[in-house]
Amino acid sequence: MLNSSSISKQPSHSHIKSAKVIKGTKGNWILTKTIGKGSMGKVKLAINETTKEKVRPTTSIRDIPAANHYKNLQQDQAKEFRIIREAAIMLLLDHPYIVTLHEILLIDQYYYFVFDLVSDGQMLDFIISHGKLKEKVARKYLRQIVSAVDYCHQNSIVHRDLKIENILIDKEGYDE
Hints:
- The chain has helices at 73-92, 123-130, 135-154; strands at 7-9, 20-24, 27-37, 42-48, 59-65, 101-107, 110-116.
- By secondary structure, it is α+β, with helices and mostly antiparallel strands.
- A hairpin with a 2-residue loop joins β2 (20-24) and β3 (27-37).
- It comes from Clydaea vesicula.
C-alpha cells in the first residue's frame, strides 16, 4: 500500500520542535524524535495526529531513502528491491512477537514504514542495564524468539540478520 502524499511542517504542534507531518491512509503522523538508526534508515517516534494516541498504538516510522539518492544504478535497483521485498514480507506477517507493519508510504523520495512501537528498545541495552537475566525471564524471551523464528520458517522466510541488536523488547509483563 504505497502512497505518494505530501509532508508538511506543522506550526500548530509548538510543543514538538520542528515536527514533520506525513499524510497516510490511516491518518496524519507527527514525526518526532529519532529513536534509532540503522544501515537502511532512521526510526522516528510518531504520533497519530487524529487520535493523539501515545501508548501502544504510538508508532515508530522508519524513513528509508528511495533508490535515486545513490550514484550507482545497480546499487539503487538492488536497494529498491530489498526495501520493497521487506515491505511485502512484513505486510504478510501476523504473529504476536513480530512487530506489525501498518502502512507504507512513498513521499518525496523516502519510504516510510509505519510500525507499532516497541517501547523498551534493544534486548542488548536491556541486558547491559539490568545485568544477567533470571532464568525464568530468559526462558520467556527465548520462547518468544523461537516462536517468531519458527513462524517465519513455516512461511518460508529466513531472517538472515538475527542478532541481539535486532531483538526489540517490551517490558510489559517483565517479572524481576
